[in-house]
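Researcher: Good morning. I'm working through a list of sequences from a screen, and I'd like to move beyond sequence-only analysis. For each chain I'm collecting a predicted structure so we can compare shapes side by side. This is the next one on the list. No need for commentary yet; just the structure.
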Amino acid sequence: MDGLLAALDWINTQMYSWLLIYLLAGVGIWFTVRTRAMQVRLVGRIVRTVAGSRHAEAGGISPFQAFAIGLASRVGTGNIAGVAIAITLGGPGAVFWMWVIAAIGMATAFIEATLAQVFKVRWHDGTFRGGPAFYIWKGLKSWRWGATFAVALLFTFGIAFEMVQSNTIAETLRTAHGVPTWITAVVLAVLSGAVILGGIKSVARVAEWVAPLMALIYVLLSLVILVMNLDRLGFVFYEIVESAFGLNEAFAGTAGGMVAALLNGVKRGLYSNEAGMGSAPNAASTATTIHPARQGLIQSAGVFVDTMLVCSATAFMILLSDESVYTPGMELEGATLTQAAVAHHLGDWTTLPMTILIFTFAFSTIIGNYAYAEVNLDYLTGEAHERDLALRITVIAAVVVGAFLKIDVVWSLADVSMGVMTLINLVAILLLGKWAFAVLADYEAGKGRSAFIAADSAHLPGVLDTDIWTHDNPTLTRNKA
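Model: Good morning. Structure tokens for this chain:
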């Protein structure tokens, strides 16, 4: 087992520290250039689209609900623990590079979410299915590569990551409050089962409220701390920028200077906001909307919320603390460091509220991850209802088992499979990017008001084989400008 873990760690080090970081960053830069920085040009449109996205046709999933499912999976314990680890290993400069990668990642998120909408298919429950497996199949005509992606995602998000989240919850409750692990496992099984057994629609209804609310509470908590430390805010910004370029000698030793700041910041940004990974498009595809680009804009906002707001909230709470809480190269890290920073600013009474936040973040990630897994099982098996039930039971079992396990090997295996699905997705969106660029041009030509009818669009690079984006679709023709 030790040999297997060592081999997996070596593979992950090579894949994540070099190949995927530069590939994901390069793809983000390309899409930013090719869309003429849509995340900047269309920022007003993004805000208005998110604000007006609560409505969906009867029986469908609204664009906002699809956004919330993606947000539920994105915003998890990684925003609390992962950012703290990045700062510990890379210094304050890691935050700067985290911001940079999120800024370009918004364009990548737009492309993959738009493609998920363009190539989505109808489903028996009144919703849609789509995502990388489907756009690889429909757009690149390769069911097998789509299946390879689907299998990798099923293991990563349907089993391994569910174990990791439940393990985090169990460990936090046990160490902070002395709650026995078996009690945590039972509570998680009941709560998760109550949502997951209802399928994607049930997940959407819960995520629509839980994910945005918890993110808002966490950001407001950080704003209180920022207001309490306004006199030091300018210094912290300066420290972040200075450390990002290796100009602060205090962070050049243990923290590793510019290289450590760059690698840790980029890695945390990429794998927190999931842009390019191919996970969030599975949620984006389920929405009922009149134009694929609308959901692309909405999903790009998820990257902003995850990194620019939630991850930044963690970073500032830590960096505004004194040396009794954070110093470069210190051993205290992860969620423990974040909890210590909040307690330093607001008092020990915050231990319980922070535990509740960590619990809720992790729980929302569990149900968001399940939604991704269901979409990809549906790709592999079609409309086999009993297999969806088998997946739901498997996910609940993974949540229970994960609370008790030491999951180093499971986590390492998940990292490998996540790397595989990311590589497949990046190749796919680069090859299919022309469709997303064309859809964006169609959207801008109609000033965001017209429905997308594939046969009427002069921008598409070819004929789109679809029974959704047609004149026969009442959702589109009823809303067409």
